[in-house]
Amino acid sequence: MWVCGALWGARASARLQRRLRPASGRRRPAAASYSASAEPSRVRALVYGHHGDPAKVVELKNLELAAVGGSDVHVKMLAAPINPSDINMIQGNYGLLPKLPAVGGNEGVGQVVAVGSSVTGVKPGDWVIPANAGLGTWRTEAVFSEEALIGVPNDIPLQSAATLGVNPCTAYRMLMDFEQLQPGDSVIQNASNSGVGQAVIQIAAALGLRTINVVRDRPDIQKLTDRLKNLGAEHVITEEELRKHEMKNFFKDVPQPRLALNCVGGRSSTELLRHLARGGTMVTYGGMAKQPVIASVSLLIFKDLKLRGFWLSQWKKDHSPEQFKGLILTLCDLIRQGQLTAPACSKVPLQDYQRALETSMQPFVSSKQILTM
């Protein structure tokens, strides 16, 4: 199970339930609001009423847009990606699950249309992203509480903003929080073509770190290798190459990594451990292979390796909203400087959601599906 995402709070869940009223439901009285356009409208949303195969349980429905209360923000969604954590949540095997029925999508970017009378942090025209997971971003528009949103600069590319709040945040924190790395140090990771993997490559390059990027072999391996190297990857090797005896010679010229980032589990994670420097750390943030992490006794005793885990949801719980906002702004600076770009994306209109869901669950897909509204 992938474990990148953010905390679904009880209050957010309750708000979602109120806003999933059928179109015939009664609306609460509107408070004073400030807007260029705050006319009541119908919302198109991807809703699931029970857990299962996303392509079968997700439906495109019409919902009523709630009125804007004093602390509310009316948002028109612009784009929202399909992440593995979104799929896991719909399947019912994610760490935190919203109450059903729920609107899919934990990430995305929208533009503020109207704000309530007590809203001070954002204004019409601003771009916003979810502060936490479970907000339900796969819809054309919505009314959210101000505390559920974080303003982001609108001078960065739309796809970068839409994919900013999960994968790059996970990549940055894992690079910064577990080992005191210095320029020239090496980091090894699997699933290097994933959204997190691509962010790790770019952020590491900006920090002066060398990356050893492990991917599964595939027919277009050279094309993938070239793309990752264009992002800043120093080395790209396949899972099969990592297991070869010749890797000992490889590490005569490349410093043994002190940090390994594991999103696969199983044999792949064991190979990462085998190549870690003494005292190094492997951080697990996902389990695509759905197999346990196995560490040999000798690696733990004689190399004193450390096994850790990371979940952005827990990081947010342990840190203040201001600290998360600071993280977002740090990443925005990297984007402006051309050091961090969005992952390879394929834009899909909201009405073609089934195709997007099915594609996102196929093997060897290196392009993230982005729903456009």
From TrEMBL:
Keywords: Coiled coil, Fatty acid biosynthesis, Fatty acid metabolism, Lipid biosynthesis, Lipid metabolism, Mitochondrion, NADP, Oxidoreductase, Transit peptide. The gene is LOC101390734. It comes from the Eukaryota. This is Enoyl-[acyl-carrier-protein] reductase, mitochondrial. The keyword NADP applies. The lineage of its organism: Eukaryota, Metazoa, Chordata, Craniata, Vertebrata. It is found in: Mitochondrion. It holds the Pfam family ADH_zinc_N. Residues 221-248 form a coiled coil. Its EC number is 1.3.1.104. SMART domains: PKS_ER. Residues 60-371 form the Enoyl reductase (ER) domain. It is an enzyme of class 1 (oxidoreductase). Gene3D superfamilies: Medium-chain alcohol dehydrogenases, catalytic domain, NAD(P)-binding Rossmann-like Domain.
